[in-house]
Design goal:
Elements (H helix, E strand, L loop, with lengths): L1 H14 L2 H25 E4 L2 E4 L2 H12 L4 H18 L2 H7 L4 H35 L6 H28 L2 H21 L6 H5 L3 H14 L8 H27 L5
Antiparallel strand pairs: 1-2
Length: 261
């Protein structure tokens, strides 16, 4: 029962946290800007001929990439601020003094981090959906598109597990923000730079960060087809599970033996 009380208490603090709402607002504004930008790019005039590449393609791009592709940065920032704040404000020490085991404290932090990630994902997906309907002046969704968007969920759960591992290991909100955001940007950049190498697929798909970009690229290429390769999905799910389980176990064990001042 203490474990669930711990989660409820942490969620209560999340609801009262101003930075979360600030990040959501910034995320909303960025999503709206991306929709506007893509509208301008897709509706251009070449040699006096207007090219409107809206319809199915536009909805696929909006729903699958605009809001969710770079969501890792917002999740990393939100989780680092909230969970890292436990160390900055000595909340973590109070939890230990209250009789909560280290494992329960870590798992509670992970549960809250996953809820934050899922909340950001849902909000972003709704923003994308509304934007697509407004801009494309209609609603269109295929089973393949739903599967494409849904594939982001296990990937971000895995990424969140790595984020909470880093945050709980560093025991500093400021350092956690820097490392988490820096690593997400670095990994995504490096993995995509390797796209031209012979082993690109193996390298990029070795981390959920790289697969997120691949899913987005795949979605943008699905003008005539809306089904992602089954082998691709299997590898993405397997990598997500491996990362999630590995970083959860490693993080819980590490935090159990970490000294708290």
């Amino acid at each position: 029962m203490k474990y669930f009380n711990l989660i409820i208490a942490d969620l209560g603090r999340v609801i009262k946290s101003k930075p979360i709402y600030i990040l959501l607002s910034v995320n909303f504004a960025l999503s709206a800007f991306n929709v506007f930008l893509m509208t301008v790019i897709l509706r251009v005039e070449i040699a006096g001929i207007e090219m409107d590449i809206g319809g199915e393609f536009f909805r696929l791009v909006v729903l699958s990439t605009f809001s969710v592709q770079n969501l890792g940065l917002f999740i990393g920032l939100a989780v680092s601020i909230f969970c890292g704040g436990d160390f900055s404000f000595n909340t973590i020490r109070n939890k230990i003094i209250s009789g909560n085991s280290r494992i329960k404290i870590y798992m509670s932090a992970l549960a809250v981090a996953l809820i934050i990630a899922l909340f950001f994902f849902i909000v972003n997906f709704v923003i994308s959906l509304i934007s697509a309907v407004i801009v494309s002046q209609g609603f269109y969704m295929t089973r393949g598109l739903i599967g494409t968007v849904a594939l982001f969920i296990p990937l971000y759960l895995a990424i969140t597990a790595t984020i909470i591992f880093v945050t709980m290991s560093l025991k500093s909100r400021v350092v956690a923000i820097g490392i988490n955001l820096g690593s997400i940007i670095f990994l995504s950049t490096v993995l995509m730079l390797l796209a031209m190498s012979p082993i690109s697929n193996y390298v990029i798909m070795s981390a959920p960060h790289g697969i997120v970009d691949l899913v987005a690229m795949e979605a943008m290429m699905m003008v005539g087809s809306t089904a992602i390769n089954g082998r691709f999905v299997s590898i993405a799910l397997l990598v997500s599970i491996i990362y999630f389980v590995a970083f959860t176990i490693a993080g819980a064990i590490k935090f159990k033996y970490t000294g708290i001042k």
